[in-house]
Automatic annotation (TrEMBL):
Domain annotation Response regulatory: ranges: 6-123
Protein name: DNA-binding response regulator
InterPro entries: CheY-like_superfamily, EvgA-like, NreC/VraR/RcsB-like_REC, Sig_transdc_resp-reg_C-effctor, Sig_transdc_resp-reg_receiver, Tscrpt_reg_LuxR_C
Source lineage: Bacteria, Pseudomonadati, Pseudomonadota, Gammaproteobacteria, Pseudomonadales
PANTHER family in alphabetical order: HTH-TYPE TRANSCRIPTIONAL REGULATOR YHJB-RELATED
Species for this entry: Ketobacter alkanivorans
Length: 225
């Protein structure tokens, strides 16, 4: 089997990006790998119309908050195999990643052989989760989770970028400077973001986004009933 299109490796840790690239090339010799280390680079690739055959996405990239990056990339590439890679190995986090659209989950503690096998399996059309993860029969996401995911997915690339900077506490002036646009443009983006998230101000937007933080999910076992 060969891959048609580039493989995206999105992670802010250079050593782990290197490990993922090695796993990809072991699974598919000759595969072309494109790297991103933050949401800004990720957005530039999507805005450029880059096509991918596989997405390997870290949950905690700079500029993304919890599951927001996964939700956003799944919307942009609905038919491409997407694997979450994360240091968070709690069952609830893994199952929620799947419910938000991931085809597989690779813990950062995984060996090279496990990463290679997971990539091969997902590209073969199968779902791949860590072996200790049992099937979850009851959905973990409620209606509000799905509404929030729909809102995040509806953001434009620039709005998603602005929301990430807003959540990091940056002021409109700072965001405008970093994005090389006017403050008026940022205010317009803020208005659109608030409307899509169903909030009235920056504080409410941040609180809404925090519902997607990985750390907000409980540790320990979840029910498999």
């Amino acid at each position: 089997m060969t891959l048609q299109g580039n493989v995206l490796v999105a992670d802010d840790h250079p050593l782990f990006r290197m490990a993922l690239k090695q796993a990809v090339t072991q699974a598919f010799p000759g595969a072309s790998v494109v790297e991103a280390e933050n949401v800004d680079q990720l957005e530039r690739l999507t805005e450029a119309g880059e096509t991918f055959s596989l997405l390997l996405l870290d949950l905690n990239m700079p500029g993304a908050h919890g599951f927001s990056g996964l939700i956003y990339m799944r919307k942009r590439y609905p038919d491409i195999p997407l694997v979450v890679v994360s240091a968070s190995e709690e069952p609830a986090v893994i199952h929620k990643a799947v419910e938000f659209g991931a085809n597989g989950f690779i813990p950062k503690s995984a060996s090279m052989d496990i990463m290679v096998a997971a990539i091969e399996k997902v590209c073969g059309g199968e779902r791949c989760l860590p072996p200790n993860i049992l099937p979850q029969h009851n959905p973990l996401l409620n209606e509000d989770d799905h509404d929030l995911a729909t809102s995040i997915a509806s953001l434009t690339p620039q709005q998603f970028r602005v929301l990430g900077m807003l959540a990091e506490g940056q002021l409109n002036k700072q965001i405008a400077y970093e994005l090389s646009v006017s403050e008026a443009t940022i205010k317009a983006h803020m208005t659109a973001i608030f409307r899509k998230l169903g909030v009235r101000n920056r504080t409410q937007a941040v609180i809404r986004l925090q519902k997607l933080d990985v750390e907000s999910f409980p540790s320990g076992d979840i029910s498999h009933s």
